[in-house]
Design goal:
6-stranded mixed sheet; 6 strands; alpha+beta; 31% helix
Length: 211
Amino acid sequence: MSTTQPVKPSSLQVYEADGTPVPHVDPREQMLKVAAAAFTRSGVYMDPDVVDSHLYEIADKAACSLLRDRWRDDFPLSAYDELLATVAAFREVLGLDPTPTGVEVFNWAALQKRLAMQQIDGQHQQYLVQFRNGPFKGAIMPFHGPTGQGPVKKLTLPIAWGDSTERGRGTAIYVRSGDANDQQLWPYKLANEVPEDARPHITAVSVRKDV
């Protein structure tokens, strides 16, 4: 009986025709290079290690735009929804942290609304809040407040920063900065310091089995 141990596939060395060893290439690093090259075709030049952050930025902008434009009757929201789903799928393939789909964005917004309602005693009604700056810039979300008095004066929302390797978590505090405008939107401004690359921390579920 042979006592030779089987060779693991991962330990096999590949050689060129002239006998030169072929350097091992990490599949994930190779995929990030391919992704970076694809962005280059569109005129966006980046290194492979920036793909993660760039995809986060795309998802962040699409999520805030979805929350802003869903109140318009003349805008094809499916464009944002498809973009979010595409970015989420792309990140799963690359093995990066998940970003939200359109459904998850709406579910997350509804959760923030329910959490904010815990501040209110007595009669209340719904108002539309518009974020003027910070991680949530451009987003419009419904929040409750005392009847006839406007939405709650302070909102605390979850944020994230960094990439899949260096993750950061925290909160953004927004305060009401005026009365409703002609569109019945109540303005809110950021009231605390947050990292420059902070973004909304919207709950997203990974479909990868290894997460």
